[in-house]
Design a protein that fits this description.
By secondary structure, the protein is α/β, with parallel strands linked by helices. It contains five helices and six strands.
């Protein structure tokens, strides 16, 4: 499959839903965001945690993987706890077609060709280091990078990250 062609189609169909750089949704609808990575144990769990924390119930948040691990990375859990966000109850899960269809934005983080492609969705591909096997000192910059990207995503969604 020619991914350049898919990207053009994604942009074309996505433009129908976006206006002036913001995703447009009906006032009664909450936008949905699906964070995807391979194991759904670190990056995607941290991103989902930040989005839930910053957006509250204004956004429907999904987090999943193409080959889920057995547990959420304890170092990622500890790094998020330093920010006052508890993701200790989260568990890696396999992405479903329903999650992808419900989401308005799909954010992939290293899942490559295993991530789903749906023509009417907005796609973000966040190139981030994998926190697996890293120390807390090495995970903190990854966590902080994710936080900044989630805050930028909220702006794209037309929301104030501080609200």
């Amino acid at each position: 499959m020619n991914l350049d062609f898919v990207g053009v189609l994604v942009d074309l169909f996505g433009a129908v839903r976006r206006g002036q750089g913001r995703l447009t949704v009906s006032p009664s609808d909450r936008p949905g965001v699906l964070f995807l990575c391979v194991h759904n144990a670190g990056r995607s769990q941290m991103a989902a945690g930040f989005l839930r924390h910053l957006a509250g119930d204004r956004v429907e948040v999904f987090s999943a993987g193409s080959n889920p691990g057995t547990e959420t990375n304890p170092v990622a859990v500890a790094a998020m706890a330093e920010e006052g966000i508890d993701i200790s109850a989260e568990h890696p899960r396999l992405w479903t077609d329903e999650m992808a269809r419900t989401a308005d934005v799909i954010v992939s983080m290293g899942c490559g060709d295993a991530c789903p492609v749906y023509p009417t969705k907005r796609y973000e591909d966040w190139e981030l280091d994998d926190p697996a096997g890293r120390s807390i000192e090495a995970v903190r910059p990854i966590r902080d990078d994710i936080k900044g990207r989630v805050e930028a995503l909220l702006v794209i969604l037309g929301m104030n990250p501080a609200s």
